[in-house]
Amino acid sequence: MTGSAAVTVLLFAAAREAAGRGRLEVPHREGLTAAEVWKTLESERPALAPLAGSVSVAVNHRFVPRDTVLAAGDELAFLPPVSGG
Amino acid sequence: MTERFRITSDPLDEQAVAEGLSTSEDGAVVVFSGIVRARNKGRKVLHLEYEAYEAMVYPVFERVAEGVSRRFGVERLRIHHRIGRVDIGESSVLVAAASPHRGTAFEAARHTMNEIKRIVPIWKREFFEGGDVWVEGPKEPVTE
């Protein structure tokens, strides 16, 4: 896996804890969507499953729909419901 | 000069956030300070810890400010947010808004806080007597 052929995945707060890590890389392929990356993560880390309905998805620091198609080198983030303030 | 947007693990400064913000056109400056309270949902809170997706916080602050500008015509707005551990009575967030009239300054500050709680990628963990928990805002995912 090289940097250019990968997608960087970031997980925060409850999602980071459920996954046991906050950052990983997944191989990129044509047509890969954010939802597919989540499904793969969830199958490897079942503790993520309860968060599936409430996580927001961001690609390169912008909120996007889950069916967004990813490009190699994208920074994909899964964000539990925010609670700043 | 005070930064427009700031996330910091240092204590927030209520004076500094408004310093130099208003112009001769302005008749009002509203400063909102959100502080950590000792009770939440019947629990005795010990302290909070904030985590941020820093690289995304700044663009989302920009987006919030653009919304405030469009909606209220308020351009002079600052947002400072604390990260890391914040103790009872300390400020976790400051919003300052300046406007020719008080109504729009109040509304701009209120709307900014609502947007922070809705879309800014910051999370708080509440440490209370007997445990700790991630506090979660609206469960509906943000998709745009």
Description:
The complex is a heterodimer of chains A (85) and B (144). Chain A has helices at residues 13-19, 34-44; strands spanning 6-11, 23-27, 56-59, 62-64, 75-79. Chain A is globular, with a radius of gyration of 12 Å. Chain A is built from 2 helices and 5 strands. Helices cover 21% and strands 27% of the residues of chain A. By secondary structure, chain A is an alpha+beta fold. Chain B is α+β, with helices and mostly antiparallel strands and 144 residues long. In chain B, 29% of the residues lie in helices and 39% in strands. In chain B, a hairpin with a 2-residue loop joins β3 (39-40) and β4 (43-52). In chain B, α2 (54-72) packs antiparallel against α3. Chain B is globular and about 50 Å long. The chains are: A alpha+beta (85), B alpha+beta (144).
Brief descriptors of the model:
heterodimer, A: 85 residues, alpha+beta, 2 helices, 5 strands, B: alpha+beta, 5-stranded antiparallel beta sheet, 4-stranded mixed beta sheet, 29% helix, globular
